[in-house]
Write a structure and sequence with these properties.
It is a single chain. By secondary structure, the protein is mostly helical. The termini are far apart. It has a domain at 45-89. Helices cover 53% and strands 0% of the residues.
Length: 90
């Protein structure tokens, strides 16, 4: 652990009878395969990050918070403009 401390208590082995009395429904639930539904990303954050990553940036833009904010705004605005133009063609 990089920081702090931990308290560790070593427990003895569980009695063999405890394993036989375990709830079968709980065991099946742990062994069952579930279906994970993939959800659509609707926040727009991945698209905004990709727009910023691809947008041309001035030297030192990442060193000044104001420049960073302006770059982010310009990138998202440019991506929105391109998206609008593409959607008009459809």
């Amino acid at each position: 652990m990089p920081e702090g401390y931990a308290i560790l208590k070593i427990m003895g082995e569980a009695p063999a009878s405890a394993a036989r009395v375990a709830d079968p429904a709980g065991t099946l639930a742990l062994a069952a395969r579930g279906a994970v539904k993939q959800m659509a990303l609707v926040s727009g954050l991945p698209e905004a990050e990709e727009a910023l990553r691809r947008f041309a940036k001035a030297d030192g833009w990442e060193l000044d918070p104001h420049k960073t904010s302006k770059q982010d705004t310009k990138a998202i605005s440019a991506a929105a403009t391109i998206t609008r133009l593409l959607l008009r063609k459809v």
